[in-house]
TrEMBL record:
This is Reductase. The keyword Transferase applies. One of its GO terms (molecular function) is acyltransferase activity, transferring groups other than amino-acyl groups. Residues 1-117 form the N-acetyltransferase domain. SUPFAM superfamilies: Acyl-CoA N-acyltransferases (Nat) (SSF55729). It comes from the Bacteria. Keywords: Acyltransferase, Transferase. CDD domains: NAT_SF.
Amino acid sequence: MLIRYKKSFKKIAMGLLSYMPREKELRTLKETIESYEANDGRQLFLWKVDEDLVGVIGVAVSETTAEILHIAVNPSFRDEGIGTEMIAAVTKLFSDRTVAPNEATNRFFEKCMKESR
């Protein structure tokens, strides 16, 4: 289930974002979270399975597009289709826009799209 980020999830979100190759440094993680908190055009979501928050997906939203900037799944929950489910949920949420990955999320996005076929 897709859940909108709120500040009480900050540490969990940072932990999940740290699974992205470019988000390893604490300073970078803090800057990334702050960019989602400060910018209305950026939206961060967490993915909940039962009682666990196991994934994160961040989107830059414009009038016509929703660009996936960040996407990561806790390693303990990988290969269960969670990435595909997160992308599907974001695509449904932003059904009036074109949903596409950026350079950092393209490989993961393409893998999930192949799995969903």
